[in-house]
Amino acid sequence: MINYRRYRRQIERTYEDSATISRYTKKKDPVSKEEKQVLEPIQEDQACKLSQTGLPRTGQTEDANNLEYDAKLFIAPELEIKQGDVIAVTRKATGRAESYTAGEPFPPYQSHQEVNLTRRDWA
User: Which of 18, 40, 47, 118 has the fewest CB atoms within 10 Å around its CB?
Assistant: First the structure.
């Protein structure tokens, strides 16, 4: 029999980053009475581990250098992450936060979940 609690503790020892998970929700503007999409945090300061899964793809144009790459997030299995969520990961090593868009999450394991992320930015 697998001791998932022990296995989870071992995995969580590698978590050196923190994540804030945000989701777009519809909110009614009190002044204009119009519905707008608003990005709201649903989980903050969650311990996690970010791992790069591919080399950055760049698209140099005259105006900007577009940057795109994929990463994988390892995080607690009880957190609900949906495709399209915006996840801001703060790296412990640098203290910088970078935003990613979540892909469809793989069904969680008992010890952790793995979420594919995409980062799109320009330099």
Answer: 40
For 11-34, what is each residue's pLDDT tens digit?
A: 999 999 999 999 999 988 888 888
Q: Does residue 11 sit in helix, strand or coil?
A: helix
Sign of CA dihedral 93, 64, 67, 84: positive
Number of Cβ within a 10 Å radius of residue 9 = 11
Question: 12 φ, ψ to 5°?
Answer: -65, -20
Residues facing 90 on adjacent strands: 18, 97
Q: Is the alpha carbon torsion for 109, 51, 118, 89 positive or negative?
A: positive
Query: Bridge-partner residues for 50, per DSSP?
Result: 73
User: Hey, what are 115's tokens?
Assistant: 């979420």
Closest of 86, 110, 107 to residue 98, by C-alpha? 86
Supply 20's token pair: 């804030």
Residues 6+ apart with CB under 8 A from 61: none
